[in-house]
């Protein structure tokens, strides 16, 4: 009720708008940049928007956006609610498989299929949450990993070959012609841009809401939150379901982009990707993991071309180094170094 | 005792019910298959559970140790030249890290220099390294695909690589920072030992290779088991001492680290040994003859590959796996029960601070238990190779089943891990039996058939049931 405060209430409507613009000017500039980026790229390379380098770079950016939402959803669990889940690949890959199976074998309309992905994600993340929240901490990590591995085994099982394609994965998912990323990549680019913005604002809004405060309270001091009358189970389950939904939608769009869904999406590697993106960007910052996703996707693409299969080993070693040496992510390490540089009085304790 | 009633119910469901409904011979062979799997699961789960009980670390890389043990054992048996040319590089790395950490305090090398040194020397050591020739279809055969002298690089070059790797380790050690002063002499000694071992292996590579390849199969198998187990133990000790120890203050990062190590292990195996599966090792002579023994005496005298159990043939090699599992279960149980070290471990599981206050070096205990658990997992891996073969996915597969076993038994409880492994093994065996025979529900014309993957995945259902009924496991008190 009193949120706006007296001083701002006195201001006229127009100046509030101007204040708002000034406050978020960096973000707004970034938004304008992202919207115009395909055309900017086509200007730089001197090629039409829908072909050549601009088209290829759009594809890379789409992938970055989707992984950014995936990282964001993981940060909601790990950073904001303090749940260490090792089963996040289950949601991402699950979303990809659900939309793939519905589009390919049941000819479902796209919107219905997306709705089904959301319902599926809420159901499966509710189930995983309900089971794994019976235990805590590192123990929960173990249970979630076991559940995700079971899904991985099922995705490779020969019994469902006619639906899932077993170890070859689900190939050739029919994407509606008006959204086909091969034909209309620009449309797909704006769809994913809209998706990442929507996901970010939804997550930011939720984190700043009373629910988000309870999540933080549970992370910081569970006994106290319980004493205040909040049910840890219910709030953590909510976090699981919201995070699972975002991850599944990102996975579904990823399946539309690649027109396939493979068992590797459900494997532990996908979970490690989420972990690394979150750790690199900084745990519990929402935007940090998204930048981490961008960095890793672009670096991953370049290194993959340079090193081939050896890249995966280097990726793992990089992950180990980040965990050992940069507990606050690269951004956190940079901030710390800057604080130390400015003077010992501002040097923050790790 | 806690958990008696659910346990009796589950045991009845897994042993009693099938005994009533199945013919005796089928029941016996399914039970024996279940015990075989249970023995392997136990070898992984027991270490996992002991490590968690003592130091609250869930080692996600435990399955990887199982797999590395298997790969190293296989390599000693089939392709020693790969190991003799590659292992010295890693021994030099370990030695370098040791020397670096001991001298870090005195030298205080700038971090930027040591960082570049680590990456630079590491890249230099593997510059243009031709692993493909060393791996060469997986095995060394006398006069085989690529003769040994052609596959190997000249001795001088490998020594140069070893030196580069040692320097990389030195830089890494400087970055990691110093060891405690009382550990100093031990660090010097261990690093020097590693270096010496590497140099010896490399200089004697032709001799050692010929000796291994010309030895009888049984001796080679024994060597493989020893090498795999020791390598697993050493790797575990090294992991605990250098990677996990700095993170005891940050338990979440410990778990993140071990998960990363499991990933690195799988990728390392893919790079070194290739992504494909390997066929099982030849069995030792006692289990190798193609005959069907009708009694245990006949098997022992003739060395038959299978034994007649109530009219159905059962591979004798699996009896060895069961034997190893039971022996380790009893041996470690006795060790924990009666020796001073075992008593210290059990006491430290209960109350670590108190034990430390009594003057027992708990840190050293940690390293020891970590090494022992890793060695057990690696032993399981080597023993499993003649039965299962090798694949880069085997580590995670066994880790999953071991997780389910410890969740059933309760984390940190030794007997619980054994019971959990027993239950998961039996459930898997009956699952495998059911999916191959098919499940016929009343009113259906044909039975439904599944693939074994369904049986593998459905063990998760047991875990789910236990989590719902008794989240701390059948015996456990600790839920982390």
TrEMBL record, chain A:
- Where is it mainly found? membrane
Q: Does the keyword ATP-binding apply?
A: no
Q: Name one GO cellular component term.
A: plasma membrane
* Pfam families linked: BPD_transp_2
GO terms (molecular function) for this protein are: branched-chain amino acid transmembrane transporter activity
Compartment annotation: Cell membrane
InterPro entries reported in the protein's UniProt record: ABC_transp_permease, LivM-like
Q: Per UniProt, what is the membrane topology?
A: Multi-pass membrane protein
Q: Which domain of life is it from?
A: Bacteria
Which UniProt key words apply to this protein? Cell membrane, Membrane, Transmembrane, Transmembrane helix
- Which residues are listed as membrane-spanning? 26-45, 84-103, 109-131, 138-155, 188-207, 228-252, 272-298, 310-330
CDD domains reported for this sequence: TM_PBP1_LivM_like
Q: What is this protein called?
A: Branched-chain amino acid ABC transporter permease
What lineage does the source organism belong to?
Bacteria, Bacillati, Chloroflexota, Thermoflexia, Thermoflexales
TrEMBL record, chain B:
Compartments it resides in: Cell membrane
Database matches in Pfam families:
BPD_transp_2
Any one GO CC term of the record = plasma membrane
GO BP terms: namely: amino acid transport
Q: Does the keyword Membrane apply?
A: yes
Q: Does the keyword Transcription regulation apply?
A: no
Q: Name one GO molecular function term.
A: transmembrane transporter activity
Q: Which keywords accompany this UniProt record?
A: Amino-acid transport, Cell membrane, Membrane, Transmembrane, Transmembrane helix, Transport
- Topology term for the membrane: Multi-pass membrane protein
Positions of transmembrane segments: 7-28, 34-53, 60-77, 83-102, 109-127, 158-176, 188-208, 220-239, 251-273, 317-336, 365-388, 447-469
PANTHER family per record = ABC TRANSPORTER ATP-BINDING PROTEIN, BRANCHED-CHAIN AMINO ACID TRANSPORT SYSTEM PERMEASE PROTEIN LIVH
The record's family statement is:
Belongs to the binding-protein-dependent transport system permease family. LivHM subfamily.
Protein name from the UniProt record: Branched-chain amino acid ABC transporter permease
């Amino acid at each position: 009720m009193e949120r706006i405060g007296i001083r701002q209430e006195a201001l006229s409507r127009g100046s509030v708008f101007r204040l708002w613009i000034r406050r978020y000017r960096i973000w707004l500039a970034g938004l304008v940049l992202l919207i115009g980026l395909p055309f900017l790229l086509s200007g730089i390379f001197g090629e039409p928007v829908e072909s050549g380098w601009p088209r290829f770079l759009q594809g890379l950016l789409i992938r970055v956006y989707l992984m950014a939402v995936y990282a964001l959803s993981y940060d909601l669990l790990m950073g904001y609610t303090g749940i260490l889940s090792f089963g996040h690949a289950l949601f991402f890959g699950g979303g990809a498989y659900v939309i793939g199976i519905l589009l390919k074998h049941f000819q479902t309309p796209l919107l219905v299929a997306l709705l089904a992905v959301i319902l599926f994600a809420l159901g499966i993340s509710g189930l995983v949450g309900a089971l794994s929240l019976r235990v805590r901490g590192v123990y929960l990590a173990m249970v979630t990993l076991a559940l995700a591995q079971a899904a991985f085994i099922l995705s490779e099982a020969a019994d469902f070959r006619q639906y899932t394609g077993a170890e070859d994965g689900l190939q050739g998912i029919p994407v509606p012609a008006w959204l086909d990323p091969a034909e209309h990549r620009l449309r797909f680019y704006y769809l994913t841009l809209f998706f990442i913005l929507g996901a970010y604002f939804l997550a930011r809004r939720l984190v700043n809401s009373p629910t988000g405060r309870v999540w933080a309270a549970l992370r910081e001091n569970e006994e106290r939150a319980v004493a205040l009358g909040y049910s840890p189970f219910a709030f953590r389950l909510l976090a699981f379901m919201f995070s699972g939904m975002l991850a599944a939608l990102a996975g579904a769009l990823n399946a539309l982009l690649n027109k396939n869904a493979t068992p590797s999406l459900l494997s532990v590697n996908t979970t490690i990707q989420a972990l690394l993106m979150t750790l690199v960007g900084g745990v519990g910052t929402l935007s940090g993991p998204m930048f981490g996703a961008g960095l890793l996707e672009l670096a991953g693409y370049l290194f993959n071309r340079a090193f081939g299969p050896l890249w995966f080993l280097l990726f793992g070693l990089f992950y180990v180094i980040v965990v050992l040496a940069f507990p606050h992510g690269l951004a956190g390490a940079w901030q710390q170094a800057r604080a130390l540089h400015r003077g010992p009085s501002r040097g923050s304790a790790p | 005792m806690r958990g008696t009633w659910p346990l009796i119910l589950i045991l009845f469901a897994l042993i009693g019910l099938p005994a009533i409904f199945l013919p005796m011979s089928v029941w016996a062979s399914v039970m024996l298959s279940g015990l075989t799997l249970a023995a392997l699961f136990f070898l992984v789960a027991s270490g996992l559970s002991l490590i968690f009980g003592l130091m609250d670390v869930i080692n996600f890389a435990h399955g990887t140790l199982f797999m590395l043990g298997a790969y190293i054992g296989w390599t000693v048996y089939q392709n020693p030249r790969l190991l003799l040319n590659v292992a010295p590089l890693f021994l030099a790395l370990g030695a370098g890290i040791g020397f670096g950490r001991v001298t870090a305090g005195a030298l205080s090398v700038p971090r930027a220099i040591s960082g570049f040194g680590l990456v630079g020397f590491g890249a230099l050591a593997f510059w243009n390294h031709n692993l493909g020739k060393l791996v060469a279809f997986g095995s060394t055969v006398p006069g085989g695909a690529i003769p040994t002298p052609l596959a190997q690089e000249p001795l001088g070059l490998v020594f140069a690589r070893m030196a580069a790797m040692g320097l990389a380790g030195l830089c890494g050690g400087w970055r990691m920072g110093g060891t405690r002063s009382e550990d100093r002499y031990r660090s010097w000694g261990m690093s020097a030992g590693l270096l010496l071992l590497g140099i010896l292996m490399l200089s004697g590579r032709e001799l050692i290779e010929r000796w291994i390849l010309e030895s009888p199969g049984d001796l080679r198998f024994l060597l493989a088991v020893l090498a795999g187990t020791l390598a697993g133990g050493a790797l575990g000790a090294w992991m605990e001492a250098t990677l996990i120890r700095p993170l005891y203050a940050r338990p979440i990062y410990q778990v993140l680290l071990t998960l990363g190590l499991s990933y690195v292990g799988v990728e390392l195996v893919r790079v070194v040994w290739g992504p494909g599966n390997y066929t099982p090792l030849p069995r030792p002579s006692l289990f190798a003859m193609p005959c069907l023994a009708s009694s245990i005496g006949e098997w022992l005298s003739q060395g038959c590959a299978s034994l007649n159990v109530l009219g159905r043939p059962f591979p004798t090699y699996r009896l060895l796996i069961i034997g190893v599992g039971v022996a380790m279960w009893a041996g470690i149980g006795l060790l924990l029960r009666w020796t001073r070290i075992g008593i210290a471990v059990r006491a430290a599981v209960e109350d670590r601070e108190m034990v430390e206050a009594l003057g027992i070096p708990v840190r050293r205990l940690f390293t020891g238990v970590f090494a022992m658990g890793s060695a057990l997992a690696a032993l399981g891996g080597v023993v499993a190779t003649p039965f299962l073969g090798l694949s880069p996915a085997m580590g995670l597969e066994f880790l999953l089943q071991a997780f389910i076993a410890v969740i059933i038994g309760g984390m940190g409880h030794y007997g619980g891990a054994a019971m959990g492994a027993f239950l998961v093994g039996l459930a898997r065996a009956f699952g495998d039996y059911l999916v191959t025979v098919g499940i016929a529900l009343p009113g259906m014309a044909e039975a439904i058939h599944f693939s074994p993957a369904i049986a593998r995945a459905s063990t998760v259902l047991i875990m789910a049931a236990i989590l719902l009924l008794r989240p701390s496991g059948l015996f456990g008190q600790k839920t982390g």
